[in-house]
From TrEMBL:
The record marks 50, 113 as: Part of a proton relay during catalysis. Keywords: Amino-acid biosynthesis, Cytoplasm, Diaminopimelate biosynthesis, Lyase, Lysine biosynthesis, Schiff base. GO terms for molecular function: 4-hydroxy-tetrahydrodipicolinate synthase activity. This is 4-hydroxy-tetrahydrodipicolinate synthase. The gene is dapA.
Length: 297
C-alpha cells in the first residue's frame, strides 16, 4: 500500500497567489515563492486552489500564474492547476486553458452551491476528464462545497483513465480507506493534521497549506516515514500541531494566515482579496512566534 504511485509527486504545496500592494497579480512574487518552495522540499505545487484565492482571480490571471510558475520551476516539478467551478462548461474551459498554460494536471472540486446528487457529480467529473488532456485530481471538500464525493462514486470514477488522484478534505477516514483499498487512486491529504495518518495507510502524499511557511518540515514528516522511522515521523507531525492549529483551525482561512506570516519570513504574499480580510497584528505575531518555535529545533 505504501508504494502506491505518486502521479504528481509526494510533497505538494497549495500555494498562495501573491498580489501587489494594490491588489494586482504579482507574477515576480509568484516565481520567487515557487522557487523557494521547490528548493526546500516541495516536488509539486497546486496553483489556483482554495489557498490560491481561486474564487477571486480571473481566468486570465489563473493562466498567467501557471505560465509564470512553470517558467520559474522548469519541467521537473509537477504543477496541478485548480479549475473547478460550479459550472461544468466553465470547468472544461478552465481545464483546457490550464493545459495550454503549462499545467501537468488539474484539480477539480465538486460543483458547489447547486448541491448536485451523486449521479450528477459523477457525470460532471467524467465530462471534465473526457474533455481535458491532463490527468485529473478530484477535490473532495464537502465542508466548503456542501456536497461530498461519496466513496462508491469515487470508486466508479477511478475507472476513468484520466482520473488518477484525490485531494482529500472529506474528514471521513473510514470512507477514504475504503476507496484506497478498492482502487489505485493516489490520495493526497488536503488537511495538514492528516498528513501522516493518511500517508501511513497508503496515500501518495499531501497537498499542504502550511507548506507555504514550513515546506521543509512537511517534507521531513514524509521522509521519516519513507525511511522506516515511524516514531520520528510521528514526532515531527505532533511537533507541528500547534502551528497547524493556528494556521488552519483558529477560525481564519489558511489563505489569510499564510499571507499574514510570509512577509515576516521575507517571502512575497501581498493582501488578500475581498471578501477575505487581512489578519490582525496580534494574529500575525502569534503565527511568527509559533513558526520560530517549530523551526528552531
Amino acid at each position: 500500500m505504501t508504494n502506491r504511485r505518486k502521479p504528481f509527486g509526494r510533497t505538494l504545496c497549495a500555494m498562495i497567489t501573491p498580489f501587489t500592494e494594490t491588489g494586482t497579480l504579482d507574477l515576480e512574487g509568484a516565481r520567487q515563492l515557487a522557487g523557494h518552495l521547490v528548493a526546500r522540499g516541495c516536488d509539486g505545487l497546486v496553483l489556483n486552489g482554495t489557498t490560491g484565492e481561486s474564487p477571486t482571480t480571473s481566468d486570465a490571471e489563473k493562466a498567467e500564474l501557471i505560465a509564470a510558475v512553470r517558467e520559474a520551476v522548469g519541467e521537473g516539478v509537477a504543477l496541478v492547476a485548480g479549475v473547478g467551478t460550479a459550472d461544468t462548461r466553465h470547468t472544461v474551459e478552465a481545464a483546457l486553458a490550464a493545459e495550454k498554460a503549462g499545467a501537468d494536471g488539474v484539480l477539480v472540486v465538486t460543483p458547489y452551491y447547486s448541491r448536485p446528487p451523486q449521479e450528477a457529480v459523477e457525470a460532471h467529473f467524467r465530462q471534465v476528464a473526457d474533455a481535458a488532456g491532463l490527468p485529473v485530481m478530484l477535490y473532495d471538500i464537502p465542508g466548503r462545497t456542501g456536497t461530498r464525493i461519496e466513496p462508491e462514486t469515487m470508486i466508479r470514477l477511478a475507472e476513468h483513465p484520466r482520473i488518477v488522484a484525490v485531494k482529500d478534505c472529506s474528514y471521513d477516514f473510514l470512507g477514504t480507506q475504503k476507496v484506497l483499498a478498492r482502487t489505485d487512486l493516489a490520495y493526497y491529504a488536503g488537511c495538514d493534521e492528516h498528513i501522516l495518518a493518511l500517508y501511513a495507510v497508503g496515500a501518495a502524499g499531501c497537498v499542504s497549506t502550511v507548506a507555504n511557511a514550513v515546506p521543509g518540515h512537511v517534507a521531513a514528516i514524509l521522509d521519516a516515514f519513507d525511511a522506516g522511522e515511524t516514531a520520528r515521523a510521528a514526532e515531527l507531525q505532533l511537533r507541528a500541531m500547534p502551528f497547524i492549529e493556528a494556521m488552519m483551525g483558529a477560525g481564519l482561512p489558511g489563505t489569510v494566515t499564510v499571507k499574514a506570516l510570509l512577509p515576516a519570513l521575507g517571502l512575497p504574499a501581498g493582501p488578500v482579496r475581498a471578501p477575505l480580510l487581512p489578519a490582525g497584528r496580534e494574529t500575525a505575531d502569534g503565527l511568527l512566534a509559533l513558526h520560530e518555535e517549530l523551526t528552531a529545533v
